Amino acid sequence: MKKLLKQAGIHKPDEMERYIVFRAQRNSYIFLISALIFWSFYESYRVYAYHTKLNLLPCMLLLLATVIQGFSQLLMTRNAVREDAESNETAHLLKTVVFIGAAASIVATIITAIIFMGVKL
Which of 34, 76, 85, 118 would you label with 53, given CA atoms 20 to 30 Å apart? Predict the structure, then answer.
C-alpha cells in the first residue's frame, strides 16, 4: 500500500509543506470571509436603496463559517491540552458552553428575522 501511495505522489508532508498548506488555507479563508462580508453589505444596501427582499444566504454562510471555525478551534485546543496536568480544562469547558449559547442565540435571532420578514420556508 505504501508503495502504491508513493507512486501516486501521496506522502506524509514535512514541516515546510504543512506550513505552505496552512498559509494557503488561511489566505483562502480570509478571502471567503471578506467576500461574504462584502456580499452581506451589498445585499443590505439593495434592501435599503431599492426596497427588495433581504437575501440571507451570505449572512448565514458567514455565520456558519465563523461558528464552525470557533467550534473547531475550541475542540482542537481542548484536545491538545487534555493530557496536560497544568492546564485548566474548566476554563475551556466554560468557553465552550458560552460559545454554544451565543451560537444558539444567533440562530434564534436569524429564525426570528425570517419569521418577521414573512419568508415562507
Answer: 34
Residue type at position 84 = D
Domain ranges in the chain are 1-119
CA dihedral 70, 76, 79, 84 (to 10 degrees): -100
Q: What is the pLDDT of residues 52-84, one digit of tens each?
A: 888 888 888 888 888 888 778 877 877 777 776
- Reported pTM: 0.65
Q: How far is CA 75 from CA 54, 69, 71, in A?
A: 34, 10, 6
Cα distance between residue 71 and residue 109, in whole Å: 19
Q: Assess contact for 50 and 43: CB atoms under 8 A.
A: no
